[in-house]
């Protein structure tokens, strides 16, 4: 399975999972299991308080870009209101050399653009944001200078610090990325899925550049999938 | 890890969006245990004003707040307070720490990032930028620098409001009386102005644009007084009405407007609601009036300190609850 296909598959699975979660949430009234148990007339439905949870929020454009940059080591640039650059997109201040920070941040509908009130920011990601995230992931994870997605911020090949075999290094990379992106190492199910991805990718890796091994290529592809994961984007 | 965006007692009580799922009530949900952020599992006597309201409400519904694991809370606070993911070292450093210690790390030790996030927050509220027709970089910089003082704890929200409504940024970003009336309500009174309340803004009519203020260039040089305003009621109020009665009070100057704004309970509530929404993701629901009142009392008792209000919110058990469903 090619990296692109795999990444797309993982992303779709991620979004499907999110959709399922949101669909589950769309039911805001719950009927009693046996309608005869509900004493209220006119079909009124019960709204039981079942369990509690924390507030869940969507990351905004700044948070996404700054987090990806910190984790992967890829520099998107920064945003500094104190030095607006009228030659660019007005309030953009310190764009990176490609001048992409501001535009990406703005398109994520969350950048502190100061034109859209915060309360108008959406709490879900639409197709344009997902496409943009894929581009951000590609830029960050396939940047050969960016090694932050690997343990020790180093090329994983031959890195005995993280293992002496590919299997050990794969596990180390997966756990490192889960911890860095999501804050916790993967559970058994997630670990198994990620291992399967690595194995499939390494059997037929995409070329990402000269000197990039199959292991490194797989690790970079896995990084893209992590960036597109709903569990990364919501906190 | 199976994250589910679920409804909750908190969601229902606090107005956050959520869902309910039949059959999700486990044995632990039926328990009567309370949660104490500072003291661990136990009494609920934390001194946190939010917990003082929320915990009894949960208990009354036979629910408890479940604390987020260290990594989950660290991640949440890092994103909210520093605007980024925690580093791996920070995850390790925060293991086993109390919520107050995690908050203090990101608010005090990482103060630069916290202040920057606060400036972003204010820029989202006040929408200051150089993309509007009359906005100017120097005015934005000045406003942004002043906003930083609120977040580093050297200026209160009340003092900031006094500065803001007279600032060049405000006067240019919102150049008409209607604009200023609307925004004064939105920013400081926590709700949109009704149509008849927009006339609140006429109290700013004493500000008159400096001569030649409409020309960006003078003799080929930037005009240092471009879109600068002078307070000159003798001129401004001669040409336009400056007197209006709003919220049961009459005023004819910006100082009067500030007296009306800052003297209103809506001023306290507006701050509470905006900060709460920022960190909790939704407004305080009308079902929890006591929480709103307690937080309004809190800001008054703490001299309208925004960082203190933020700290109270992010160290509450409501903020520090887990989203994991067990």
Question: What does this molecule look like?
Answer:
The complex is a heterodimer of chains A (235) and B (326). By secondary structure, chain A is mostly helical. Chain A is 46% helix and 0% strand. Chain A has helices spanning 3-25, 61-72, 101-107, 127-141, 166-182, 188-203, 214-227, 230-233. In chain A, helix 2 crosses helix 3 (101-107), helix 4 (127-141) runs antiparallel to helix 7 (214-227) and helix 6 (188-203) packs across helix 7. The two termini of chain A are 31 Å apart. Mean pLDDT of chain A is 73; it is low at 1-38, 44-52 and 83-98. Chain B is mainly alpha-helical. Chain B is built from 15 helices and eight strands. Chain B has helices spanning 9-14, 49-60, 70-82, 88-94, 99-109, 111-126, 137-151, 157-164, 168-173, 177-188, 233-239, 254-263, 265-280, 289-301, 306-314; strands spanning 34-36, 40-42, 207-209, 217-218, 221-222, 229-231, 244-246, 249-251. Chain B has a two-stranded antiparallel sheet. Chain B has a two-stranded antiparallel ribbon with strand order 3-6. A two-stranded antiparallel ribbon of chain B has the order 4-5. In chain B, helix 2 (49-60) packs antiparallel against helix 14 and helix 5 (99-109) packs across helix 6. Mean pLDDT of chain B is 81; it is low at 1-45. Classes of the chains: A mainly alpha (235), B mainly alpha (326). The interface between A and B is large, with 54 and 74 residues.
């Amino acid at each position: 399975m090619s990296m692109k296909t795999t990444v797309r598959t993982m992303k779709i699975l991620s979004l499907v999972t999110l959709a399922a979660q949101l669909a589950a949430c769309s039911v805001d009234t719950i009927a009693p299991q046996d309608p005869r148990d509900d004493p209220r007339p006119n079909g009124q439905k019960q709204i039981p308080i079942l369990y509690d949870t924390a507030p869940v929020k969507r990351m905004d454009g700044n948070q996404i870009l700054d987090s990806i940059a910190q984790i992967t080591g890829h520099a998107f640039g920064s945003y500094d209101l104190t030095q607006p650059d009228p030659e660019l997109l007005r309030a953009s201040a310190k764009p990176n050399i490609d001048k992409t920070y501001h535009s990406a941040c703005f398109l994520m509908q969350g950048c502190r653009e100061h034109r859209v009130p915060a309360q108008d920011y959406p709490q879900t990601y639409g197709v344009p944001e997902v496409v943009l995230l894929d581009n951000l992931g590609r830029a960050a994870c396939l940047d050969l200078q960016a090694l932050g997605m690997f343990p020790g911020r180093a090329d994983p090949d031959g890195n005995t610090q993280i293992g002496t075999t590919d299997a050990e290094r794969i596990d180390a990379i997966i756990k490192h990325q889960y911890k860095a992106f999501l804050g916790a190492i993967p559970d058994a199910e997630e670990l198994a899925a990620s291992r399967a991805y690595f194995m499939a990718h390494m059997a037929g890796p995409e070329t990402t550049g000269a000197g990039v091994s199959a292991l490194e290529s797989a690790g970079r592809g896995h990084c893209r999938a992590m960036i597109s994961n709903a569990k990364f984007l919501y906190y | 890890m199976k994250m589910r965006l679920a409804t909750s007692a908190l969601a229902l009580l606090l107005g956050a969006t959520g869902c309910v799922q039949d059959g999700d009530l486990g044995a632990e949900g039926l328990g009567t245990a309370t949660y104490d952020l500072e003291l661990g599992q136990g009494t609920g006597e934390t001194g946190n004003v939010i917990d003082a309201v929320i915990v009894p409400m949960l208990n009354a519904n036979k629910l408890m707040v479940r604390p987020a694991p260290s990594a989950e809370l660290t991640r949440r606070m890092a994103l909210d307070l520093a605007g980024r993911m925690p580093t791996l070292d920070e995850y390790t450093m925060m293991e086993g720490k109390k919520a107050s210690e995690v908050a203090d790390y990101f608010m005090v030790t990482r103060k630069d990032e916290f202040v920057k996030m606060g400036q972003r927050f204010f820029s989202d509220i006040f929408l200051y930028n150089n993309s509007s027709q009359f906005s100017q970089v120097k005015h934005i910089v000045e406003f942004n620098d002043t906003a930083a003082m609120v977040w580093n704890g050297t200026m209160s929200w009340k003092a900031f409001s006094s500065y803001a409504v007279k600032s060049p940024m405000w006067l240019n970003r919102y150049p008409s009386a209607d604009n200023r009336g609307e925004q004064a309500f939105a920013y400081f009174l926590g709700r949109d102005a009704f149509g008849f309340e927009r006339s609140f803004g006429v109290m700013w009519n004493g500000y008159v644009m400096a001569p030649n203020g409409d020309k960006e260039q003078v003799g080929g040089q930037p005009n240092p007084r471009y879109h600068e305003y002078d307070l000159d009621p003798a001129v401004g109020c001669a040409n336009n009405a400056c007197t209006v009665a709003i919220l049961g009070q009459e005023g004819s100057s910006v100082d009067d407007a500030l007296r009306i704004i800052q003297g209103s309970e809506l001023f306290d509530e507006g701050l509470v609601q905006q900060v709460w929404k920022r960190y909790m993701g939704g407004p305080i629901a009308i079902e929890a009036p006591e929480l709103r009142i307690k937080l309004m009392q809190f800001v008054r008792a703490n001299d309208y300190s925004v960082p203190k209000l933020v700290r109270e919110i992010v160290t509450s058990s409501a903020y520090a609850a887990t989203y994991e469903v067990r």
